[in-house]
Fold these 3 entries.
Entry 1:
Amino acid sequence: MVKDFYVLISKLTSSVNLFERYRSLLSTTDKLSSSFSPVRMASGEGAVPEQNDKEILLYLHNHSFYSQKLLFVLNERGIKFKTVFINIAAGDQYKNSFLDINPRGEVPVIKDGETIVVDSAKIIYYLEEQYKTHKTLIPTAEGAEIIERHNHFHTVIHDLPADVITIGSFYHPEVVRDPKLPFILPVRKHMRNVTEKIPAKLKDIASKEAKYAEVLNQKATKIENDLEIMKNKEEFLKVLDTVDGVLQEVEEQLVKNEGTEKWLVSDNFTLADIDLAILLERLYVLGLEQRFWQNRPNITKYFNRMKQRDSFKKSIPSAFFHIKTLLEGIPNFLLSLM
């Protein structure tokens, strides 16, 4: 019955600490708005959250690529948190109640005491700085060679455009094989239709709400530019070629690790492993695994090993969650076709 339902429905040098990359993100203005700070206090100026047993509030959607990455970080580091589900399929991220938290209308976001932090990369740095008693994912004590290797893989994997890869594959079904939940055919059509309508929706909100206008108008322009790449097969294939180049580097590194218990760059599990794991998971559910690692046996072994890790399993939506969200999304799917 379940089966029937599925059918129906740039190198960094060793002297540059990865922290500095994140610190520069936090200390400069956000790329989308000169007036929007990615870290702010809900009340009071300059307050620093105390390290205690309180739980972080995490705003997320479980199918969001960057939400999954942050979930993985929190689970791996053992940091306590509670979740607030933002139904991005229904457009909840563009309601004023959420735009007041993140004017870009994006997840994930965390609220830690009185501090609000947006953008997964900035959140990860914030957590490293504020939760030092928990396990670290940055190999700062492992020597220059490992730091350099880690920073390189983190950067090249993190900089891949996950949204372009995801939505672009919906426009070019010939490049995928066997897409899996949640990205089965009805969902692919729905997400494609919704994405095309987002720029107009953002501009409409911006015309009515001056305090969000700058950020939302710039985001609308970015999505319009991304859509041009997604729809143009030649441009989209260039993006996939970039992914292919990164995964070839990964395969070559894993070949060097053969015969050891190393993860991607170290004996210890690092942020680069989280970057890689969430990328591989996304490519897998999109139906792109045969394209990218059918002939890369070490990536296959690595991914199979990763899927046994408890923190990974906790961070990836279950089949039950997929079915539940598909059922709840049917009205939105029908509306998207109108």
Entry 2:
Amino acid sequence: MILFAAFRSERLRSTIVIPELVKIVFEQISLMNKKDLFHFFFNSNFPITAAKTGATEILRMCISTYPDQLWFPREGRNILQLAIENRQEKTFSYLYGHMNADEKILTTRIVDPNGGNILHVAAKIVPSFRVNSSPVFQMQTEIDWFKKVARRVPPEKMTNDQGETPIEVFTREHKDLVKKAEAYTIRTAESCLIVAALVATVTFAAAFTVPGGNYSDDDATNKGKPIFLGKKSFLLFMVVDALAPFSSTFSIQVFLTLFLGGYAEAHFDYLVPQKLEIGLFSLRISKLEFGETPGVSPFPLSSKQFPARSSGHSGELR
């Protein structure tokens, strides 16, 4: 506990001290003359690291101190291109939002070694070390990111040295990911179909098996009625048992459309991820209802809770 408290205290001090330290550093940098500022930022790794890691606040201080460094070549790229390559959405939005009209026109110019513009850069697949989700949702993220950059950096029809538009580059770069996403979807749908079918079969059969049974023909008043019909737990049991096959059947329909449907790049923008989420959600609901059915059942009950049944040999209760 002492070590944990010390660790938390150290982290708390870091979150307070580091921003103050950065502020002090930039206060000293701002005292430089224009020539020294140029040499400092031209040879500095501040903007490069900030653009790659998404440290927007540090980048804001750099730009406000010396705005021209936005277009300094760094590792053969400017910091806007570095932000796009590393999928830093907040940094990209900040940089683009602080450009004037002429600077925004420059984003359509050639910046890629292959003769492409910023949108060609956004069309490239994300580095593997940044991937932390399934192929389906990774593909959705890639499409969403490309569209966000495309809305701000026209035109899409500009071609690179190979004669490819940004959309064509995107399709080529993500060809293998689309195949992985398709295989993942089919595999997931197949597994979930088995589970959903099992839940639907069991709960459908349970719906026709009344807990406690029915009154016998000897009871003319209650003939055929469930013995526990008047109990609240019986009503709750029947409601839950009715919802479980409905939700499991619905999930079967959703996963069947995924299992039998065709897949194109555009389908992973919304249709396939949405169907997966809906199918998995309805399957979880059906499994939850299936698991709760025994909990709301009128059983176990003691023999005193059973209504009296007449015996053919004596007037005693069984």
Entry 3:
Amino acid sequence: MDWPLKIFFAAFLLAAAAIHGAQGDAMVTGAVFCDQCKDGQISLFDYPLRGRKVAVACADSNGQITMWKEETTNWFGNYAMTFEGTPDLSGCYARVSGSGPGCGAAAGPPKNLRLMFRMFETEMYSVEPLLSEPAQPMSFCPRSSTPVPPPVTPVTPPPVERPPPVTPVTPPPMERPPVPRLPPMSPLPRLPPMSPLPRFPPMSPLPRLPPMPRLPPLPPLPPMPPTTFFEASACPYKNWTMPEYKCYWKAVSPDMKVAVVFGLIAAQRYGTDMSLWKGLQGRGDPYRTLLREATTALLNSYNSVQFPFHPLGVIQDANWALMGSTRHVLHTALRFMRANAGYGKVSCKFTPCK
């Protein structure tokens, strides 16, 4: 599975969490990418777009729009829309509805909705990745990235019957009239000699300017924000709950819902109202312990590139544990807890926020 499909699978897990319980709703999920090379497909040079508006439209047999809904993509370029009830969305399509500077100059073609499955009286539709293009391809794009149009087979016209040759009639030669001769030009008069230019008196020296006053010293630059992304750092959940370290919440915020971050399986276990901040307070119950350590591992993976778990790996392992036994839940929570403690070798590199 190549990396675009991995991102699409992660987007499917993240967006499916927006279902508010088993209420018989229809869910539409997908992602938007920036097609930097304008080749009409996802390549190594493309990346997910945040803050791009996506519209889902449904039309009847006469072409009249019967249903319309818009949503904005999140940090990962994903979007999710919920339709109350179970409407038939098989004839609907999704497209990028907004435009803007940078990679929002032009939108790619619309994509049809595809039914993935029905579960708990809920229909789940997916859309192939939508594309948003810049005005011109980036300079680093290869020349071969621009699609070459297919060759057009020329259509041979039927033979045309030629008329019989016509003998041209040569007109009689025309006689040119004689060109009249111009009279000789008279010589031009001589210009009078120019008088010498007057001499200007010497200029007096300019007065000296007074010395410039000294400028006040420049104010000191503000301190740089803490950067621990390239350092090895592992912090337990207690550090993430301290107010002086809230500036390290980067990719996710404390108010984000567990269902939105971890997906549909986590939404069925913890509900749709549980936030990440509340999930860090869990203890005593094996499933609450798993949520606490999984949330801590996700924050550490976003904060340090040397953390043992990747963000998508944390989400995938947590969902696999929730589908297994209680013993599997405790085993996965213990793995996250050891990684968050740095295996006894890596410390927490937090400094108080300014």
